Amino acid sequence: MKFNDDSGFIIRMFHVYKRYASKNALIDINLDISENEFLFITGPTGAGKTTLLKLLYLGEPASEGQILVGGRSLSRISRRQIPFLRRKFGVIFQNYKLIPTKNIFDNIALVAEAVGTKKRLIQKKVKSVLRAVGMEEKLKAFPPGLSGGEQQRVAVARAIAGNPGIILADEPTGSLDAESARIIFDLLKGLHTRGATVIIATHDTELIRRTGGRVVLLEQGRLKMSTIIPKLS
């Protein structure tokens, strides 16, 4: 899915601030993200990583500054248009955010319905994304009966059910064992290979060293560094 502007950047942030009461969560953020980039946003707990992701899909509005997604300013998007913007994104939340009273099929079908998938194609779509993450046999299971790694795989399946161009992942491996973390990360790399822009907020420095790529460092709400980390051989 191509929806970058003529600059070649899919996301641009200009002098962006986010304030909660009198506290600055993000301060003067300037950041360009290219289409099909695999980007890490890192920094200590409380640095502003999750807040930055929320601003991109209008989970919260910026307090000041401008954010462009596909060349379109988020400040000019009406409330009615927000659901259409969010179709461009697949969001993998740190705490999964699966609906505990709905089975895995229904959790993912809700997303497929929201992006306009025809009813006759929803079952095929759900099975397809679950197969991609190795969870097709859990179709009728409920989230509380799954391990953390299984729930995160379902969260990845849900995120890609709408064929988004941008994947936002908030600490996707933070609470997982090493094998589950490897599976989740391999899935994200596969999405990137197939053309998605992948943005991962993480403090997992080992994950970054193993992968390499561009890393943005946040400290106390400020962008302190943007650098390329070579992949470990």
TrEMBL record:
PANTHER family: CELL DIVISION ATP-BINDING PROTEIN FTSE, IMPORT ATP-BINDING PROTEIN
Biological-process GO terms, alphabetical: cell division
Top-rank lineage group of the source organism: Bacteria
Function: Part of the ABC transporter FtsEX involved in cellular division. Important for assembly or stability of the septal ring.
InterPro entries membership: AAA+_ATPase (IPR003593), ABC_transporter-like_ATP-bd (IPR003439), ABC_transporter-like_CS (IPR017871), ABC_transpr_LolD-like (IPR015854), P-loop_NTPase (IPR027417)
Lineage of the species this protein comes from: Bacteria, Pseudomonadati, Thermodesulfobacteriota, Desulfobacteria, Desulfobacterales
Protein name (database record): Cell division ATP-binding protein FtsE
A GO-annotated cellular component: plasma membrane
GO MF terms held by the record: ATP binding; ATP hydrolysis activity; transmembrane transporter activity
Ranges where the ABC transporter domain occurs: 11-232
Listed Pfam families: ABC_tran (PF00005)
Keyword Oxidoreductase: no
Keywords from the named record: ATP-binding, Cell cycle, Cell division, Nucleotide-binding
Family: Belongs to the ABC transporter superfamily.
Keyword Metal-binding attached: no
